Amino acid sequence: MHRRIVVVVAGTLFALLALVAGIVTDFHDREFPQAVGAKSRIGLDFKESELTDREAFTRLQDLDARLRLGLVKIAPDLAGDSSKKVFVPLNDGAFPARVAWFGGGDPVEVMGRERLDHSPPDGTYLLTGDSAGLGELEKSLASEAVRTHRTEASLVDSFVFVVEAGSFGAAVIAAFALIAALALFWLSVKARGRALRVLGGCPTPRIHLQDLGGFFGALLMSALVVAAASAVYVGVLHGWAHVPSFIKVLAGLQAAVIAASLLAAIALSMSAWPSATMLATRQPAVKSLRTSAVVLQALTFVLVVGAAGPAWTAYRDSAEASAETAQWHRLSDQVAAQFAMSLEEMDRVEPQIGTFVKEAESADAAALSYTLTEDAWETDFGAYSAVAFVNQRWLDLLTADAPEPSLTPVPFSRVQGMVVKEFGEQFTLWSRSKESGGELAAQLRYLEPTGGLRLPVSTGNGELLFLSDVLVAVVPSLHDTFSDADLTSMMSTKNIVFSGLAPTQELLDRQGLAPDRMRAAGFEGEVNLVHVAEEGLLKAQFAAYVTWLLNLALVALFTAFAVVAGVSAVISARLHAKRDFPLRLAGRPWRRILQVRVAKELLAGAGLVGVVLLFQQPDEAGAVLLAAAFAAIVAPLCHLLATRWMFTAIGRRRV
Questions:
Q1: Is 477 left (phi over 0), alpha (psi -120 to 50) or beta?
Q2: pLDDT at position 324, please?
Q3: 95 vs 57, 92, 240, 329, 626, CA distance in Å?
Q4: CA 348, CA 93: separation in Å to the nearest integer?
Q5: Do residues 449 and 407 touch, judged by C-beta distance below 8 A?
Q6: Residue pair 174/260 in contact by the 8 Å Cβ criterion
Q7: How far is CA 377 from CA 240, 387, 423, 426, in A?
Q8: Higher model confidence: residue 630 or residue 618?
Q9: How far apart are CA 185 and CA 203, in angstroms?
Q10: Which residues touch 312 (CB under 8 Å, ≥6 apart)?
């Protein structure tokens, strides 16, 4: 019976490890897609390079073809669902039309080279070919002041990243706690037999070897069954190409857990060795194991309630992350200008840029968001953490689906002192008509988010902040408010974005800012258009994936606690069997038989919850108390089931 219990409980644990292995395999596949044979990820940063975007891509294509690297750029699918990725090979190769993921979901489309015509060369590339030329690639790009960062495909690194990404580390610790509890249960079952073998003069090493051999055999049997079943499951549903990676991760996890369980069993076996005094006084052989069981249950309980708060925060943030992703979707058609020219040439194009912005604004295609935070401005904005200068087009883009009223007016008189004090001189510098700072400040319209709205505002270079305590200053007209020099500066930092690639490119052509016309005018640099939402969409996708992992980790911890509580209750039932059996025969209800030990556990649990609450955020207290309530139900239930099982076993002379 006890062997079957160990096999079943260990099977539950190894099934949990199979789930972890599946997540690691899925993460590894998303980082290094197996369908295209990805071997490395290479991050490229051209910000310090003097290469134009066109020159950068030409350089990469040449190196890719010569070194047979098989480089594939990762980019959002801006033509379809912008929350998804697309793969763009730099050169022709044996790539599938669509790439399927281990974790399912919509396949990724492999697009042609023209997809990168208006994308920045910065970003992440997959190496799918010969890795021998990577050193030459990095050396060649370094000579052009291009920063590179290479990440090799490694299942170990993927596992470490998953464990470090939030509370998955706690889930792994819970797994070790569960296996240690199984070791306790095994030794408690074997305690009487161990005592008799000690009295019979059996050598100590033989007793250890027999006990640990039986425990190891039960664990190994369970591990092999789970590994075989899960491998078939992965192969049938996810593809046999993923089975080797999955089995490597699962086997590593199972080996680590089994090794830890054997070490725990050895330590517990040595510390709980039956003594002559115990045998002479007829004390239960499992008595020495009770302390370890209580400590283990308390540790797992602390892990559960301690992880509940952060997991709740992650769940709440996941809703915000989903909203943020939706905001990035609204910017998926927005493009920004990227200046690949000297400061002197930028000064020369300022009048053309001013006219360009004026025409785009008249077509309602120019959106401004220029945000200054307290930290960046090194001052105090009072009730606000930042001040965002926007135009109506920006608000229309990013508050279209927000419930009304999402923004409420702020009287100028209420913020006049702060705005004029902090930005008066800056307004004078910005102003096209050189009005005083106070006059320009009075022309703006001021708003603030309400109803829990976290308004997306840009800090520049494609970075968004989602703020609920921001003062929004609405600029009536970009061209009429800001000088050509300031408009050029704001465009260069991507604080001004434009709707639609084709219409924006047409506007550039009309102002003589197309590459060929600028070359004809004697310019060495050029102005390129890039999609502003690319990096933001990829970051939002990653945040959502990590959030999912965090909440799955909490489920793992709840499972671990339930099993640990059950094992501890079985040990407790064995210790109290001489008391519980006659009381139950006398007609005493189970509630009265168990009330003392259950009350002690609940009281101790309440104390531990109080300690955990001291280290939690105030808004996480509800989640902690909910997790504690779960434990307060599971622990008494485990005691009831264990005690009833022990009563039946004694009645049938099985104990």
A1: beta
A2: 65
A3: 20, 8, 19, 28, 50
A4: 43
A5: yes
A6: no
A7: 56, 10, 10, 12
A8: 630
A9: 23
A10: 620, 622, 623
The two beta strands, 98-99 and 108-110, are antiparallel
DSSP 518-581: HHHTT-SSEEEEEETTHHHHHHHHHHHHHHHHHHHHHHHHHHHHHHHHHHHHHHHHHHTHHHHH
Shortest CA distance to 563 belongs to which of 183, 9, 5, 4?
A: 9
Burial class (CB in 10 A: 0-12, 13-18, 19+), 177: buried
CB 128 within 8 A of CB 92: no
Q: Which long-range contacts (CB under 8 A, 24 or more apart) does 373-376 make?
A: 373/459, 373/465, 376/459
Q: Which pair of structure tokens corresponds to residue 362?
A: 């008249």
In this predicted structure, the answer to whether residue 229 has a pLDDT above a threshold of 90 is: yes
The token duo for 536 is: 């933001």
pTM: 0.59
d(CA 378, CA 633): 52
Q: Which residues are 149's β-sheet partners?
A: 43
φ/ψ of residue 256, rounded to 5? -65, -45
Alpha-carbon torsion (220, 226, 229, 233), positive or negative? negative
Confidence grade of residue 82 (pLDDT, cut at 50, 70, 90): very low
Largest CA distance in the chain: 105
DSSP β-bridge partners for residue 123: 44
How far is residue 522's CA from residue 368's CA, in Å, rounded to a whole number? 30
Are residues 606 and 296 in contact, defined by beta-carbon separation less than 8 angstroms? no
Beta-bridged to residue 99, according to DSSP, are 108
Conformation bin of residue 451: beta by default, left when phi > 0, alpha when psi is -120 to 50: left
- Can you tell me the distance from the alpha carbon of 386 to that of 371, in angstroms, rounded to the nearest whole number? 7
Peptide bond into 284 cis (omega under 30): no
Rounded Cα distance between 267 and 251, Å, is: 24
For the beta sheet containing 526-531, the strands, ordered from the edge strand earlier in sequence to the opposite edge, are 407-409, 445-449, 470-474, 386-390, 366-373, 496-499, 334-340, 526-531
- Select, from the ranges 234-248, 361-375, 579-593, the one with the highest average predicted confidence (pLDDT): 361-375
Structural tokens at position 251: 């086997």
Give percent above pLDDT 70 in the chain: 81
Residue scoring higher pLDDT (531 or 396): 396
Average pLDDT, integer, range 312-337: 70
Overall size of the chain counted in residues: 655
Provide the 3-class DSSP secondary structure of residue 126: strand
Residue with the two structure tokens 């099977």: 11
Quick: pLDDT tens for 12-48.
778 878 877 887 888 788 778 877 778 888 888 887 7
Q: Which helix (H) or strand (E) holds 250?
A: helix 243-271
Q: Bigger pLDDT: 552 or 124?
A: 124
Reading the block at residue 340, the tokens are 């690949």
Q: What is the pLDDT of residues 524-536, one digit of tens each?
A: 777 878 777 766 6
Q: Position 414: which residue type? A: R
Please name which of 610, 596, 605, 614 lies closest in space to residue 634, comparing C-alpha atoms. Answer: 605
